[in-house]
Design brief:
The chain is mainly α and 220 residues long. It has one domain: Cytochrome c/b562 (Four Helix Bundle (Hemerythrin (Met), subunit A)). The chain has a two-stranded antiparallel sheet. Helix 5 runs antiparallel to helix 6. 15% of the residues are buried. The structure holds heme C. Heme C binds next to helix 2, helix 4, helix 5 and helix 6.
Length: 220
C-alpha cells in the first residue's frame, strides 16, 4: 500500500511524464537541413536595370538566332541565307546558351529602368507602362513573371537541341517561338495595350505564311 505521500509522489510522477510526453509530441518538427534546391554559392548583385539587360544582352544576342535563317529577294531571285559552317552554328549555340542562362537574371530583383526613366508612359493613352506599374504587376503575381522567363528559357533549350542536329527548318520555326516568347512577356508587362493589335498581326502572318515561306518581316 502506498502512503498518501507516496501516492502524491506517484501522481506527480505521472503528471510529469504526461507533460513531458505532451511537450515532446507537440514540438514542431526541426527545420530540414536540406531544402529542395541548394542555396546559391554566393550573392548575385545586379549591374543594370531590366531595360538595359534587354538592350545590351538579351536583344543583341537573340539576333544570333533571329538572323540565322532568312530569305532575300534580289535581281537574281530569292537568295536563301542559312547556317552552313561550324562557325555559323556555333554563333547560334552562343545565342541559345546566353538566352537560356541569361534570362534567369530577371529573377534577380533589379530596377526596371534606369533612375529617372519612366518609359513612354506619360500623356493620354500612353503606349507603355511605367517602371513602377510594371513592378507592381510583377509583385502582384511573381509566378507569372517566372513562367514568362521559363518560356524563353525553354526556347533556348529547344535551339540547343536543333544546333546538335543542324536542322535548318526547325531553326526557322524556333525563331518564331523565340519571337513569341519575347512578345508574350512584353505584352503582359511592357505594352499590354498592344495585345489585340499583335494578335491580329499574328493571325495575318499565319495566313501569309501558309502561302509559303517568305522574307522574314518578324520584329521583336
Ligand atoms: C520575362 C519577361 C521578358 C522577356 C522574356 C523578354 N523581355 Fe524584353 N523587356 C521586358 C520588360 C519588362 C521590358 C521593359 C522594361 C522597362 O522599360 O521598364 C523589356 C524591354 C525590352 C527592350 C527595350 C529596351 C530599351 O532599350 O528600350 C527590348 C529591345 C527587349 N526587351 C527585347 C527582348 C527580346 C529580343 C526578348 C526575347 C529574346 C525579350 N526582350 C524577352 C521583359 C522581358
Amino acid at each position: 500500500m502506498l502512503s498518501v505521500g507516496g501516492r502524491l509522489t506517484a501522481f506527480a510522477g505521472v503528471l510529469f511524464l504526461a507533460t513531458f510526453t505532451f511537450s515532446v509530441c507537440s514540438k514542431p518538427a526541426p527545420p530540414r537541413q536540406q531544402s529542395a534546391s541548394p542555396p546559391l554559392l554566393g550573392e548575385i548583385t545586379p549591374v543594370v536595370s531590366v531595360k538595359e539587360l534587354m538592350e545590351h544582352m538579351i536583344d543583341p544576342i537573340a539576333d544570333n538566332i533571329f538572323d540565322a535563317v532568312w530569305w532575300d529577294t534580289t535581281a537574281k531571285g530569292v537568295v536563301e541565307h542559312q547556317p552552313r559552317t561550324d562557325e555559323d552554328w556555333e554563333k547560334i549555340r552562343i545565342g541559345a546558351v546566353t538566352l537560356a542562362e541569361g534570362i534567369d537574371l530577371l529573377k534577380v530583383p533589379r530596377p526596371l529602368a534606369p533612375e529617372g526613366d519612366v518609359n513612354n508612359s506619360l500623356g493620354p493613352n500612353p503606349p507603355e507602362l511605367s517602371p513602377t506599374e510594371i513592378k507592381a504587376k510583377i509583385d502582384k503575381d511573381p509566378v507569372l513573371w517566372i513562367a514568362k522567363i521559363q518560356a524563353l528559357r525553354n526556347v533556348g533549350l529547344e535551339v540547343l537541341e536543333i544546333v546538335k542536329k543542324k536542322d535548318v527548318d526547325a531553326l526557322w520555326q524556333a525563331g518564331g517561338d523565340l519571337d513569341e516568347a519575347c512578345e508574350a512577356c512584353h505584352l503582359e508587362y511592357w505594352y499590354p495595350g498592344d495585345k489585340t493589335t499583335v494578335l491580329e498581326q499574328r493571325k495575318a502572318r499565319a495566313r501569309f505564311e501558309k502561302r509559303g515561306r517568305r522574307v522574314d518581316d518578324r520584329k521583336h
